[in-house]
Each structure stands twice: as structure tokens, then as C-alpha cells.
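Researcher: Next entry: Dienelactone hydrolase domain-containing protein (Tetradesmus obliquus).
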Amino acid sequence: MIAGVPCYTSKPSSFNGCAIILATDIFGYKLVNSRLIADVYADNGFLTVMPDYFRGEPMNIALLETYEALPSMSLLGKLNGYAQLAGQIVGMGSWFKRHPVEYAIDVVTAAAAKLRDKHGARKVGLQGYCYGGKVGVKMAAKPESVDAVCSAHPGLIKIPEDIQAVQVPLQFICAASDAQFPEKTRTAAQQLLQQQSPGLGRFILYPGTQHGFAVRGSKADPAVDAARQDALQQGIGFFKQHLAGVQAQADAAAAVGVVL
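Model: Predicted structure:
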């Protein structure tokens, strides 16, 4: 438990004095891929926590499983699959109303305070994915809570207000194809951050990827898998630089990603 909600905690064998809050996508803190990411952060010295800000009601993983299975389905299977997706998508509106970003922000803010006060973290970073990427961008306006944010393929970003409020270093991991964070929004965010303070924002674009790749990128696709792994390392390097003071982050991304 942290901040009054269940969480997944991954503890480093050698604590570097810094903590990471991993803000999940809509599939929540029990998703295996998200827990593996938390473990990699811990392997790099960060005390990592992943709170359940969905209060035991993440989006049904069947939505993801059905969507990912569509390409291999028969025609009849696809028709049934689309029918299932339609029914689940209809319910998404009420789900988002039950789980507003504002509540997640409250949980993350309380978790950051606990990490500093009770767990010895001198600095706290936030790594967010999709829904959690939006949480991260909003938290980037709260320097009293977090010291740096990495937001991977975020959703629901409002231009200009969300970006104009940013006060801490903010790195974006961007998918090439992303209806939730399209090129127009990404470019506007980049321009706004540059106007506010050169160097405040950093954007890395991964060609050939889609929304969600940094968590759920397929290992069966070598290019996507390489992008997923590089995105994780870019996040780790970013936090080592801005939290731990280690100049581990290169000026340019690995060949997989393109720094914009």
C-alpha cells in the first residue's frame, strides 16, 4: 500500500536515493508488462512504485486481447471480434467518468510525498504510459511533488494549457502512429516547451510504432521490440540524469529513435 491504495513495489538491491512512480495505462498495475518495466527501473537503483489509482477496476484486458487478435482471425472471427469491441468501447465513457485523471493525480501526489517522507527518496520522477502519460504531464506542473517526468505516448493532452503549466524536465516517448498524441499535438507541445524554456522538453519519435508500443510492443516484430527496449532505456537515462545527476543520457537517441 502507498497513499492509501494498493501498489506494486519493486525495490532496488542498491538504492540510489531516487524513486520512480510508474503511472500505468488503462490496464492497470497488475499488467505483467508494466510490472516488468518497474523491475527494470529497480535494477537501475530506483525504488519504484506503481499505485492502483483505478481502485481495483482497470479496463478489461479482454479489450486489448480482442484487438490484438483481430489480424489472425477468420472473417467470421473478425466480425465477432468487432462486435465485442463495439460493446466494450460503448462502456469506456462511463469507465473514464468513474476514473478521472484528477483522482489519479491525487494518488500520485500523495505517493510522492510518502516516498520522500517515509522511504528516503531525495528526488522523485514519474514514468507514465498512455493514461498515465497524461497524469505525468499534469504532474510536471507540480515541482513540489516530482522532479522530472517521462511521458510515453500520452492520451488526452490539452493544448496549450497542459503544456504551458510544465515546470520540470519532461521527456516524451512518441509513437509514429498515434491518434491520441498525433503529430499536430506533438509539434504544438514541442513549440510551447521550447518557447517556455529551451531544454525543458525532449521528444523522441520511434518510426514504425503505434500507440502503446512502449508497454505492449510485440516481441514478434524485431523493429517494434527494439523500439520498446530503447524507449525504456531512454527513460532510465533521462531519470539518471535529472534525478541522480548521472550524465548517462546521450544527446541523441539510439538509432532506433529520432530526437526531434
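Model: Note for the record: The longest helix spans residues 222-242.
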